[in-house]
Amino acid sequence: MKKMIAGLLLAASCMLAAPRVAVSIGVGVPVAPAPVVAAVPVCPGPGYTWVAGGWYFVGGRRVWRGGYWAPPVAHFHGYAHFHR
To answer: Is the pLDDT confidence value at 22 over 70?
Structure first.
């Protein structure tokens, strides 16, 4: 009799421990970010290049990064020699 009660308790506990599956569907309307109006500052010197700002994803949300003047890049016209 004890084995039968133990078996029934085991069977009952297995029914309560059934795996549960949840499915969710998110429906939303993508919202465009607000337009940003900014003036381009005066160029700091010859050779500088304007890099436009834009929206970037940071941590799952959009963040505006403003534009900036990039300094001139020194170009190397030759070969690099590596010593071993």
So the answer is: yes
